[in-house]
Design brief:
The chain is α+β, with helices and mostly antiparallel strands and 207 residues long. 35% of the residues lie in helices and 26% in strands. Strands 1, 2, 3, 4, 8, 9 and 10 form a seven-stranded mixed β-sheet that branches. Strands 5-11 form a two-stranded antiparallel sheet. Helix 4 runs parallel beside helix 5. The longest helix is centred in the N-terminal third of the chain and has 24 residues.
């Protein structure tokens, strides 16, 4: 019976992940923005890390955790553009680059931390399914790294902004600008729709 229950849970999780990934590949992010302003100062003032085990990427900046909740990276925003782009010699879309990028980076983080890594939670939306906003970390080459910042630096996602247009973590815009200047990842393409608009894409240091 336990084996049957586990199989049913795995099947349900697989269908859930597939549903969100399919929508994202079509340019639709089903994960809502935070309902309340996130307290980002808590990371510096009262860091509270909790171990999370990912089940699968749902978008370019969110994943399903083993406890059934959705974890959305507070500092990163995946690309939603379905315009064709070149990546690693392949013709794909901007959204698929972000989705594949998070999938690969989660695998890296899990391998480095034994299939689980710590996250600091900044807020949670009301409703079902539960969406929790967090910054997650993993150790690579002896140093702790932010999952959000790694995605941004690799040109697989962008620095997230709040409803007013301000960067949730201003330091992540520096990683984005560096990736932009170097033509890293998605930035190797001359044309794609940045999640915060063409004007911002053309000049990432301004809002």
């Amino acid at each position: 019976m336990n084996a049957l229950t586990l199989a049913a849970q795995d099947d349900a999780a697989s269908k859930f992940v597939s549903y969100y990934q399919t929508a994202y590949a079509e340019g639709r992010d089903l994960i809502p923005a935070p309902q309340k302003t996130l307290d980002t100062s808590s990371i510096a003032e009262r860091l509270d890390l909790r171990t999370i085990t990912p089940e699968g990427a749902l978008s370019g900046s969110a994943f399903l955790a083993s406890d059934g909740t959705i974890v959305k990276l507070a500092g990163a925003q995946g690309c939603l553009s379905t315009e064709p782009v070149e990546f690693a010699g392949l013709r794909t879309t901007c959204a698929m680059v972000s989705l594949a990028g998070l999938t690969a980076t989660l695998g890296e983080a899990e391998a480095a931390a034994g299939n689980a890594f710590p996250c600091h939670f900044l807020g949670q939306n009301a409703g079902t399914p539960t969406v929790r906003f967090a910054e997650c970390f993993f150790v690579k080459d002896g140093a702790a790294q932010s999952l959000s910042e790694v995605l941004i630096a690799r040109g697989l996602a962008f620095a997230a902004r709040d409803r007013t247009g301000r960067a949730v973590f201003p330091e992540y815009t520096q990683a984005e600008e560096k990736a932009h200047r170097a033509g890293t990842g998605i930035w190797a393409n001359a044309h794609f729709t940045h999640p915060y608009g063409e004007r911002y894409r053309a000049s990432p240091s301004t809002n």
